[in-house]
Each structure stands twice: as structure tokens, then as C-alpha cells.
Amino acid sequence: MFIARFLLAFLIAADPTQDANLPGTVQVRRLTIISSSLPEPERQRIVHGLQGIETDARGEELAERVRQYLRNAGYFNARAEDMQVSGITETQAGRSADFSARVEPGDRYALGDITFQDAKAFSSDQLRRLFSLRGGELLYAAEMSHGLENLRNLYAAKGYANFGVIEKPMIDNTRHVVDIIIVIDEGRPVSLGSLRLEGRELFAGAGRSLLASWKDMQGKLYNPDLLKQWLATNTSGWPHEAASTVNADWVAGSAPDVAVDILLHFQ
Predict the structure, then answer these.
(1) By the 8 A CB rule, do 116 and 184 touch?
(2) What is the DSSP letter of 72?
(3) Does residue 53 have a pLDDT over 50?
(4) Residue 23 in contact with residue 95, Cβ under 8 Å?
(5) Which CATH superfamily includes the segment(s) 191-266?
(6) Are strands 54-56 and 94-104 parallel, antiparallel or unpaired?
(7) What pTM, to 2 d.p., does this model score?
(8) Three-state secondary-structure class, residue 255
């Protein structure tokens, strides 16, 4: 995220509505949560966690973060609306403003069952163990996200670079329970294809050395951990400032269902 810097020698107070339409980000100087039902400890936790961050001038990203805080506390249907921005000021350090939002947390929901659809490479029991939440526990969004990340890592380690997943919540508003169906699109395992280089190499011969080393990697089963290890090994002798500017990503090659190409960015 980039902070819009205005090199002014004095403080300028401006019209909030006009400034809210400007691009760039604004620091949350003060956050006010307006709610008749949110417990005070939860309100304080949100305020302390979000005051001082950067957000867009309309506060749309801030509203989403407020909702995420609430979902991470089990408030599955939480709402944060009517975000108001006031007192936008500009200094040499950047812009800051006060924000306020109306919050309706709703009821807390518990997790019911997690089931998996279209999973073939691994058993449902294997996949369920990747999620720490048990049935009957409060449904914490962050824990579910962590489980989904474990799921992606498991498939990626077995070559499934094109893996995809969709969550389908089945909500029981009477019992305040959410069953979650996880629909999996496995694709199929792919191998490592060609190595592509992008940007300006940091010193003469860096690109040639990497391309030569890649010959031993090409054709192996795609594995992001293996890729990280290869990159670390082949840049270990580089100056630290040079090695830290190289990033790897995979891109679809001419046959994306068979192999993926690796793109190295020299920044």
C-alpha cells in the first residue's frame, strides 16, 4: 500500500467530502464504533487493532477489516455500515482522518460439519485434519482461512499447481450453526517447465547461472517448497541485497495441464 505524501510546510484542514474522493491512503487517526449490541471488550479490541492503520479515503477497506475482526470472533453475519470520514488533514507525514461506523454484530455461530466435495487425491479424513476447528466450537473465520491455506499447501506439495477451492456455507439460523461444504477442483499434477527471467540481472552472469542450474529441476513434479529451496541454494553466494530482490512465481506455459513455467523477477 502506498501513502500519498503532500510536502506542505503547514497543516491544512479541508472539506472531508472532497478529500474522500482523492486517491491514495489515509491513516486512521481515530476509529469510533457505533453499536447498541456489541460487547465493550469486542469494541475495544477492534478500535485498538485498527487505529493507526492505512486505509482508502472512503474507509471501504476499513469497514471490511471491522467485519473481519467480528467474523474472527464468531459473528458470522456481522455488518459494518455507514462509514463516515471526518477531519481529514494533511501534513508532511501524510493524510489522516477520523472514521466512524455503525456495527451490527448479530449472533455468534458455531461450526457444524465440514464436508469435502470432488476430492480424489486425498481422503476426507486427511483433509478434515487440516482444520483445527471442531464441530460445536465458535466459527472463527481466521481458523477456517488457516485450514484452507493448509489445504492449498497439501495439494501444492503434490504438484497440483492449478488447484482451486470454493466454500459453500449452509447456515442454520435457528440453531446458529454453519455447516461448510468445500468444493475442490483438483486439476491434475503438473511438472516444472521452463525457467523465464524478467527484469535487469543484478550482476553479469546471474541469469546464465540460474538457467544452467534449472536444467536439473525441469521435469520434476511441481512443488513450491522445492522451488524455494532451489532458489535459496542458487543465490546463497550472492550479496544479500541482490538475493533478496529475486522473486519466483509460476505462469502457465504452452501446456498448462502438463507443466508450468517458472518466472523469476529481478527487481
Answers:
(1) yes
(2) T
(3) yes
(4) no
(5) membrane protein fhac (3.10.20.310)
(6) unpaired
(7) 0.76
(8) coil
Q: What is the CA radius of gyration of the chain?
A: 24
* pLDDT tops 80 at residue 6: no
CATH of 12-104, one of 3.10.20, 3.40.50, 2.60.40, 3.80.10: 3.10.20
| CB neighbour list of residue 160: distance below 8 Å, 6 or more residues apart | 121, 186, 187, 188, 189, 190, 222
d(CA 111, CA 178): 5
- Give the confidence band of 4 by pLDDT, cuts at 50, 70, 90: very low
Phi, psi of 185 (to 5 degrees): -115, 100
- pLDDT-above-70 percentage for the chain: 88
Average pLDDT over residues 107-132: 96
Task: Please report, as a single letter, which amino acid is at residue 184.
Answer: I
Contact 62, 29 (CB under 8 A): no
pLDDT category at 23 given cuts 50, 70, 90 is: low
* Burial profile 188-201: b = 16 or more Cβ within 10 angstroms, e = fewer: ebbbbbebebeeeb
Which residues of the chain form CATH 3.10.20.310?
A: 110-185, 191-266
Nearest to 97 by CA among 67, 70, 62: 62
Fold of 110-185: Ubiquitin-like (UB roll) (3.10.20)
- Helix (H) / strand (E) containing 169: strand 164-172
Residues near 117 by beta carbon (within 8 Å), at least 6 away in sequence: 181, 182, 183, 184
pLDDT in the model for residue 8: 30
Alpha carbon distance 77, 81 (integer Å): 13
Mean residue pLDDT of the chain comes to 86
Q: How far apart are CA 80 and CA 97, in angstroms?
A: 18
